Amino acid sequence: MGVNSQTSSVIDPAEWVEYAAREHPRRLFLRTLAGRQLSYEALREQSARLASALLGRGVASGDRVAARVEKSAEAVLLYVACLRLGAVFVPINLACTPNELDYLLCDSSPRLAVVPPGERDMLAPLADRAGIQCLETLGADGNGSLPLFHVHGLCAAINTVLASAAGILLLPKFEVRSALQHLAHVTVFMGVPTHYTRLLQDEGLNREATAHMRLFVSGSAPLPIETHQEFLRRTDHVILERYGMTETLINASNPYDGPRVPGSVGPALPGIAIRVTNRDSGTVEPKPDVIGTLEIAGPNVFAGYWRDPDKTSAEFTADGWFKTGDLGCIDRDGYVRIAGRVKDLVISGGCNVYPREVESELEALPGVAESAVFGAPHPDFGEGVTAVIVPAAGAVLSEAQVIESLSMRLARYKVPKRVLLVAQLPRNAMGKVQKDALRAAYACIYRGS
């Protein structure tokens, strides 16, 4: 399925659906491996019925609709129905534990929560306490995976398809053999670096397998230069790498027509400004190729963090630029290169992991006195979530025991791949844990994994 050059000139998602259904009623919007197909005419009719059902349950424009659902055609319909209604779609990863789910529902305060079969009774006490309606879904044809709870999958992928009246082949999850088999039926593949490293491990990735493809896109985490170069050698395709964030969507991109530079995420998109500032002084770096903190301004930048004015204030400069927390530089051609992160965010397999959340769970375990969580280079996931803990006096802990305990409280992708026991954490003169020292000490821990 490909992108059509004739697109709607408006930016209203509801009008995208109406335009495509009017101009291309029989064109396929979506199909699944289970045989489910939705034309644009069917998308308009079924999403309208679903939007009407949401209205009937009291959902109005601006209300939140929490969706803890399988990756499926029905999940996409629910998302489109929310777009048409003006409701806020709040995707929740199926891997979330009850502890995490409780927090997410309480924080987002949705008017309605759509949950898998069998969960309604489990969530009843929370729903009653928070005034949330719970609605169970019917069975669906897939497994939960990254795209439908990730801002790129929803906004950069589905919205782009809607705006261009194109089509989606919805796979239940990423599997190398399945992906290679279905490349002949699509023209664009959007993946994270982990997808590309795994594809390169299969001998089936070659020029013949990718002959039908028009574009390969990489995002969510830095793409290793070696991966970029090897993919080109095997397929004759140059991966288009770009740079985005949940708070800003896409900021910069290597060009579709023009040089795609390995190790770079390309220049800023039209209408978006990216600048480099000195980490210590905050002044703008006037020279190219100087690494500093990246800041962004433009219509793509979000308004602020939900119900957190203090964090919102802290993450914007006095002149209105958003502090990305990323380190990088801009070369003489305007291409942005990401050098690392000021913030401690770990991106493992394209999924965001916040160290403080994992540290809180570690330090809640009996026998753990202190902890530090960071990302270490991983050949498959880009970064591996890694924990260092200091046992309490007299406590007897093991790596396997700690990982098992965390697995019951955190989603799988957040659980550290290694837990190392140490006598003390490295700290600076102010008593702050030196995570740079930990990253350096354990930089090779996953080598050969």
Features:
Rossmann fold, 13 helices, Luciferase, domain 3, 20 strands, 4-stranded mixed beta sheet, alpha/beta, 449 residues, 4-stranded parallel beta sheet
The rounded Rg comes to: 23 Å
Strand content: 15-25%
The average pLDDT value, as a whole number, equals 89
The CATH level-2 architecture of the largest domain is identified as 3-Layer(aba) Sandwich
Q: How far is the N terminus from the C terminus?
A: 36 Å
Count the strands? 20
As a percent range, the share of helical residues equals 25-40%
Structural class, by secondary structure, is alpha/beta
Helix tally equals 13
Number of domains: 4
Major sheet, described briefly?
A: 4 strands, parallel
Weakly predicted, low-confidence segments:
1-6, 138-147
**Spatial order of the strands forming the largest sheet:** 4-3-5-6
**Tertiary shape:** globular
Question: Which fold does the CATH topology of the largest domain refer to?
Answer: Rossmann fold
